[in-house]
Structure formats: C-alpha cells, structure tokens
Design a protein that fits this description.
Structural class of chain B: alpha+beta
Largest interface: A-B, 48 and 49 residues
Shape of chain A: globular
CATH superfamily of the largest domain in chain B: Dipeptide-binding Protein, Domain 3
CATH architecture of one domain in chain A: Orthogonal Bundle
Strand order of the largest sheet of chain B: 8-9-10-1-11-19-12
Distance between the termini of chain B: 48 Å
Radius of gyration of chain A: 24 Å
Radius of gyration of chain B: 26 Å
Number of strands of chain A: 2
CATH topology of the largest domain in chain B: Dipeptide-binding Protein, domain 3
Helix content of chain A: over 70%
CATH topology of one domain in chain A: MetI-like fold
Strand content of chain A: under 5%
Shape of chain B: globular
Strand order of the largest sheet of chain A: 1-2
Oligomer: heterodimer
CATH superfamily of one domain in chain A: MetI-like
CATH class of one domain in chain A: Mainly Alpha
CATH class of the largest domain in chain B: Alpha Beta
Structural class of chain A: mainly alpha
Order of helices and strands of chain A: HHHHEEHHHHHHHHHH
Number of helices of chain B: 17
Strand content of chain B: 15-25%
Number of helices of chain A: 14
CATH architecture of the largest domain in chain B: Roll
Chain lengths: 314, 547
C-alpha cells in the first residue's frame, strides 16, 4: 500500500506541474492588460510602462513562470494586481468562507441523498421510489441560479426571513452567520441530494439483485441488516467515487452561488481575478484547487483499497 | 400517520401565512428632495426641499441629525485606498472623498470651488499656478496640512507619472499656506487637473510606513478614517474627529459594501440591507427602482459621465474607413434617436459630440448626423463604395445596439458582421487597435483636451493605434493646451469638436451618455451623490434620520 501511495503522489506532482504550466500559458495568452485595469481609464502610456516594470510583466514569460514556481515553493505566492496586496493574506479568509458553505452542503447532501437513495431502492417501484426518483430528476434538472433567485424572492424579499446576501464568519456572529448561510447551502445542496439519491439507488439496486443478498435472506438475516451491512457496503464504491469528486469541487464548484449571494469565497475571488486578468492570483487559486482535487482523488484511491480489498491485490 | 401528516401540513400553512403577513418595506412617497421621481435636482433646491420634507416628518427640529452608520452598496471595488497617486480611475473617487480632500471641488456649474484651497490663480506668462491653502487643517494622524505637504504630494504624483502633473517643473512654498507650482510648459488643463485630481495624504504617515503600507492605510484630511478593509467585500469607516469643518461629519460611520452582481445589489437595496445603491448603470435596475418610486439622484453637470459612440478603424490605408466620406456615411446610416429611445428606455441622453449639451465644451456649431440613409448611400457612392463593403462590428455588449446598428448599416450597403467579444478583448482592442467598427467609450469632463488627447494623439493610451491623427486636429489640441484664458480655450474646444465630429467623423458616431443614477432611502439626506461629478459625493454633509 505504501508503494502505491508514493506512486500516486508522484503522479499527482507531475499532473500539478502540467496544470500550472497550462494555466500560466493560457492566462498569458488571453487578451487584456492587468496594469491598465489597475490604473484605470486615465492611465497614460508612461504610467503603464512604469507599472509594468514595477510588477515584473516586462520580463520574458518563461522567466515569470520560473519565478512564480520558485515563489510557491518558498512561500511567496506573489502579489495580486486587482487587490494590490500579497496573495497569502487574501486566500485564507476566502477559503474559510467557501468551506463554510460547501462543507455543510456536502454533509447534508450525503446524508439525505444516501438515505433517500436507500429508501428508494428498498421500496423499488413503490410510490416512495417514484416520489424520490421524480424529485431527484427535478432536483438535478433545476438550475442552481434559478433556485437562488426563487429562494431570495420567497425567503428574503417576501417573507423577510433571511438576508439577501453577504457573509458573516460564524466566529464573529453565529446567528447572523448561519442566517446568511441558509440559502447558499440550500441551493448547493438540493442538486447534490438528487445526485446522491440517484447514484445510491442505482448502486443499491445492482447489489440487491446479486446472489449473496439472496443467500443472506435465505440465512434468515433481518432486511435492515442485509441492506445496511451487506448491500450498502458493496454499493459504496461508486458512492465514494462521487464523494471524491464532490470533495474535489468543494473549493471550485461554488462560483455561481458565491456571486449570487455575495459570499467572499475562493470562487468569487477567482472570477474577479479572471475578469481583471490578475495572472498571479488566477494561477495561485487554480493551484490550490488542483491540489485539493488531486488530494481528494488520492484519498478516494486509498479508500477503494480499504472498501474492496480485491482492488489492493490487483 | 395521517394525523401526523395533517399536523405537518397545518404547521407549514401557519408558517407560510406568518411569512406572507409581513409586507416588504415600501419606499416613502417623499424623499430627500421632496419629490419621489426627482432627478437632477439643483443642490440649493435640494436643501430647501429636503428641509421642508424633514419638517413634515420631524416638526421639532428639521436640523441634520448626528449619528448612524450609513450602508452603501456599490459594485465598484477599489484596489488601492490610501496611496492616492495610484487611485486614478473614477472607481476610486467615491472612496477617495471619504478619507481625502483635493485643493478644489466642483460646484453645480462645473466650475472649481473651495476645498483645501481657499483661493487660486493661474498666470500664463510666468507659467505658474498659485494656491492659497485653508488654515488649521490637520491630517487624521494629527500632522498639519500645509504647503510642504502639498508639495510632497504633488511630487509623488509626478513620480507616479500621472498625466495631471506631467507639466509640473518645480514647486515653491513661500509660506505655510501658499503653494506656487511652476510648469515646464503652459497647460490650460493644469489648474483643473491639479486642483481636483490630486488628493492629499499625510507625508509623515507615508514616509514612516512606506508606500506599500499606504496603499491599504489611507491617512488624509477627509471626514472619515478607515476602520476596516475586507478587500472586495466591505470597507468600514468611522468619523474623523479632527475633521476641519466644524460640526461635520454627521454620521458615525459608513460601510461601503461591494456587491458585484446587479440583481443581488438590487435585492439588497429592496430588502433594505443597504441605504444607498450607488452608481447604478444597469437600465433594468434603474427601471425597477424608478417604477417603485425610490429617490433617485443623478449627475447635474455631465462631469465624469461616460459617453458612448461608434468608432471605425480609419488608420489602415486600404480600409474603406480611411475615407472620411465612408465614416460620415456610417453616421448618416444610423437612426440614433430611435436607438436611444428604444434601447435606452429614456435613461440615455443622445449626444452628438464629446460633451453633454450645456457644458462649456459643448459646441452649438456641431451639426451632427441626422438619420438620412439616402445621403449615406450617396456618400458611399462618392467614395467608390456604391456596392457597399464588408466589415466587422465588435461588441462586448448584451443590449440590442450592435444588432440594430448592423441592420441600419446593412440597409445602406455596409455589411457589418456582429462579433461578440469579452471585456478583456475589448480592452486589448482599445489599446492595440482593431479592424472595422467597435464601440467608443469616453469620459466627459469640463476639459476637452485632457481626455480627448488620450484618444486623439498618435501615442494616446486608447483607440489611438487604429485611428487617423489629422494634423489640424492635433494643432487645435495643442492650442487648447496652451490657451491663455478660458474664453479662448472654449472657442478652441468648440472648433475641435466640429473638426473631429463633423469634418472627419474621426471618432465616428456619438450615440449617448447615461448619467449614473444613485438610489437612496428617504432617511438619507444631502449625500449629493454624483451631483457635480458622476463618481463623487459629499460624505461629510450626509446625515440620516431614523428609518
């Protein structure tokens, strides 16, 4: 197992390097000049030349890339142009804000989604199954932005139950923080619940029809034990795959929700950075997201081995 | 089971009915100007009517009330707050005026008025500007604002290569409250640009802590001091107890909330999470809030507003656009009145030059281009393009302008394919050139040469690489710059407008300007948002009564 992990980590480092190079080249090939955006409409040619030199954009692209990589290793992540500050001071709060939305959403989605999926599978072809499957289809087909608009209209503007927008750290004001998180978490969760429910249902149905389940029944085991211990355990592999992808998306999958609810997370930061052609900031954020995705994939791969020992043997 | 289900349904129904019982807050019928649909109200009337309005609500006093934290929502996020030479864009002005002052401000006529300077003069012969400074002013760190501070600040602007101070050669400080600025060559714009565009930081604070620190820590003479800056999220200010105007500011603090999404900004305002919705340039938001009767404040002078037009790449010799007749044909082919009325929903004001009607730089002699497709066809035939030609119209816009213009042009034989681009591509084309047509954006100021030169000069920062630079236009530009007095400057500005728009159609077809609207709740008074400069306001004068 140790060798396997080392091999996977080495692969991840190579993937990471390729990702950084690609994003670096893409960012430097798109049109737009960050210095002009920084200085505004009134900028003169002299001013632009002066600040291009100050920010080091007059150097060859390859030199800039190597400098950036060296900075990442030494802990100097560079300077954001559109925020005119060190990126290391910007990122921590933004990551916390994003995780404040995505982690509750993931927990809710997994618990409810898996539960509904199991119920639908157990009550296959019954009215509960139809209800869960129907809701799941609607949930998956409903665009998140539409849900966001609907929630804002009903819960904030009409009922005045929740604030329209904003983010307050839970450590600062717990009640207000929670009130501001309710709508974004709901919007993020509903689609995921539907997805988990569908995945769980189909995985469970596949397992339920296998011989060992019939054997378990013929041994006289209780239905609950059969479902939760034998069937669910064997249906976990596809669920863990989906979970791994969700964890990988924890930092990057919330751009829209952050934008609509004005949450100062990593997604909205990335959007601002792209719109302002803030090269270094985009590169740093993509690097963090890639690290997160690769890390979660690695964990999932390791988990496979524990869930199904046959994978380890192979 | 059924009982439990019934209980749940009843509970849900009760909860919903409780929610529905509370009505959303409606805006008041009146407002700070005493008129629910008022726009472009002169400040004198504003104050009087505001007083009358307040009297009705608060018969006891009607005087400005102290206290309260004003919440302002804006989509504009500044990069730098404290090192003013790097705060060049209009985005920064609304923030700058919280912490800083300039030597002069603009009044309702667009003329300079007192701020940190009480008197000023310019001398063409000796190429000098002299400012007499207000006495007894201190920076928020307690250090004095004096002539040396002014000198040091202007030197920072010169070092940062700001165009406003490009001609500054040396600065004299004969006494504590007098500054004499010597220019290397006379520039008639210098008084305006140095008077309004230079904001004064505490030299001590910047020198002791460095520029990097100063970018995030504004120390000026303004009515408020920075409390907290969460970048891209919120900027909180608190009252400057050392502010030089006695009895001001009225507010305890101001929270500037940055909300980039227009719908979220609108909803936050409707839900009263913010008291002011600043700089609303979204027609949809404008229409909705207008229809709901919210107080709307608009610009009075056109200063700082953005003009929009249609510009063609005239620099390429082989391009049809190199011929002035083709450019004029394009102008005659488009029915601007119908477009502005149909797409602008009454929020846009048609323009025919680089100015708004009534401004000092607005030339009454500019004829413009009335819609005349036959004349357009004739001009094209004269230019040798009787069968028309193919071109591209680049647009980053999502409204109907590009498609409608393309159809108008097609009707006279100019087959303009609409190509959608993003903002970054637009920015790139503005700087490095394009081939065909694109939208022209320009800032309207009381000083034509200051901003037009950025487009008209061969080494101008915007649009310059793709357009012609006729020598006679450049000569007039130079004459404006060196004009001896305001009257000469105005006459020259007028003739430049005529040359650029009527004779050469160099910047193509001017379309419209849209004054940025700001919406406020009825309990917010005297903020004067955008009155004299589209991006500026008066935080020191702003006060709030109970909601």
């Amino acid at each position: 197992m140790g060798r396997y992990i080392v091999k996977r980590v080495a692969q991840s480092v190579i993937v990471l390097l390729i990702v950084t190079l690609l994003i670096f080249l893409v960012m430097h090939s798109i049109p737009g000049n960050p210095i002009r955006l920084y200085l505004g409409d009134g900028a003169t040619t002299e001013q632009i030349e002066y600040y291009t030199e100050v920010f080091g954009f007059d150097q060859p692209v390859l030199v800039q890339y190597v400098k950036w990589l060296r900075g990442i290793v030494t802990g100097e992540w560079g300077r954001s142009i559109c925020f005119a500050t060190d990126i290391t001071t910007l990122l921590p709060d933004r990551i916390v804000a994003t995780l404040s939305v995505t982690i509750p959403s993931l927990v809710i989605s997994v618990i409810l989604g898996v539960l509904l999926g199991i119920i639908a599978a157990v009550k296959r072809n019954g009215w509960i199954d139809s209800l869960v499957s129907g809701c799941a289809n609607i949930g998956m087909a409903t665009p998140a932005f539409w849900l966001a608009i609907l929630f804002v209209y009903i819960l904030a503007l009409k009922c005045k139950l929740l604030p329209v927008q904003g983010y307050t750290p839970l450590t600062e004001d717990f009640t207000l923080g929670v009130r501001k998180l309710v709508m974004p978490v709901l919007v993020l969760s509903l689609g995921s619940i539907a997805y988990y429910a569908r995945q769980t249902r189909s995985a469970m149905l596949e397992v339920i029809n296998q011989d060992f389940i019939r054997t378990a029944r013929s041994k006289g085991l209780k239905e609950r034990t059969i479902m939760l211990v034998h069937a669910l355990h064997n249906a976990l592999i596809p669920l863990v795959t989906v979970l791994g992808m969700s964890i990988g998306n924890l930092l990057g999958g919330t751009v829209l929700v952050e934008q609509v609810f004005c949450i100062p997370g990593i997604g909205s930061l990335l959007l601002t950075a792209i719109l302002n052609v803030d090269y270094i900031l985009v590169q740093d954020i993509i690097l963090i997201m890639s690290l997160f995705a690769l890390g979660s994939n690695l964990i999932v791969d390791i988990l496979y081995g524990y869930i199904d020992p046959r994978i380890r043997v192979k | 089971m059924k009982k439990r289900f019934l209980v749940l349904v009843l509970a849900a129904a009760m909860a919903l009915s409780a929610c529905g019982g509370e009505q959303p807050q409606k805006p008041a019928e009146g407002n700070q100007e005493g008129n629910p649909k008022e726009e472009q109200q002169p400040p004198a009337e504003t104050e009087d009517q505001g007083q009358a309005d307040t009297d009705e609500k608060e018969p006891a006093s009607g005087e400005p009330v102290y206290g309260g934290v004003l919440k302002v929502g804006s989509y504009l996020s500044p990069s730098v707050l404290g090192y003013t030479p790097e705060c060049g864009s209009n985005t920064n002005i609304q923030y700058l005026r919280l912490n800083f002052n300039s030597l002069c401000n603009y009044d309702e006529t667009g003329a300079l008025c007192e701020d940190l300077a009480t008197e000023w003069s310019s001398d063409y012969e000796s190429k000098t500007l002299t400012f007499k400074l207000r006495e007894g002013v201190t920076f928020s760190d307690g250090t004095p604002f004096n002539a040396e501070a002014v000198k040091w600040n202007i030197e920072q602007y010169v070092e940062a290569k700001r165009s406003e101070t490009a001609e500054v050669e040396s600065i004299e400080t004969p006494d504590e409250s007098t500054v004499v600025i010597h220019l290397s060559s006379w520039n008639s714009s210098a008084l305006n640009s140095i008077g309004y565009m230079v904001y004064y930081m505490s030299p001590t604070a910047v020198q002791e802590n460095g520029v990097e620190w100063a970018r995030e820590n504004p120390v000026g003479t303004g009515p408020f001091v920075l409390k907290e800056w969460e970048k891209g999220v919120c900027i909180s200010y608190e009252k400057n107890e050392n502010y030089f105007e006695e009895g001001r500011p009225y507010l305890d603090g101001i929270d500037m909330q940055i909300i980039e999404d227009s719908t979220t900004l609108l909803n936050a305002f409707k839900n009263r999470e913010i008291d002011i919705l600043a700089h609303c340039d979204y027609t949809r938001v404008n229409m909705e809030l207008d229809s709901m009767g919210f107080t709307k404040l608009s610009n009075l002078t056109g200063i700082g507003c953005e003009g929009t037009g249609l510009i063609c790449s005239s620099a390429a010799e082989n391009s049809p656009w190199a011929d002035a007749k083709v450019r004029q044909a394009m102008c005659y082919a488009v029915d601007v009145d119908t477009l502005v009325e149909g797409i602008g929903f009454g929020y846009q004001q048609k323009i025919n030059q680089w100015a708004v009607e009534g401004a000092s730089t607005w030339s009454p002699n500019v004829k413009g281009y009335a819609y005349d497709p036959e004349k357009a066809k004739a001009l094209l035939a004269e230019a040798g393009y009787g069968d028309g030609f193919d071109t591209v119209l680049y647009t980053e816009r999502s409204d109907g302008y590009a498609v409608s213009i393309s159809e108008y042009l097609d009707a006279v034989g100019i087959r303009a394919a609409v190509e959608q681009i993003d903002d970054n591509k637009l920015s790139d084309m503005m700087v490095n050139g394009w081939d065909g047509l694109m939208f022209h954006y320009f800032t309207i100021t009381p000083d034509l040469s200051l901003y037009m030169s950025r487009h008209l000069l061969a080494d101008g920062a915007y649009y310059a690489p793709a357009i012609l630079h006729p020598q006679d236009c450049l000569d007039i530009l130079e004459q404006i710059k060196t004009a001896k007095d305001e009257e000469t400057k105005q006459q020259l500005s007028w003739s430049l407008q005529e040359k650029v728009y009527d004779e050469y159609a160099l910047f193509g077809l001017p379309l419209y300007t849209e004054p940025l609207a700001t919406f406020v709740y009825e309990n917010v008074h005297d903020c004067q948002w955008g009155f004299y400069h589209a991006s500026a306001w008066e935080p020191a004068d702003t006060w709030m009564d109970a909601k």
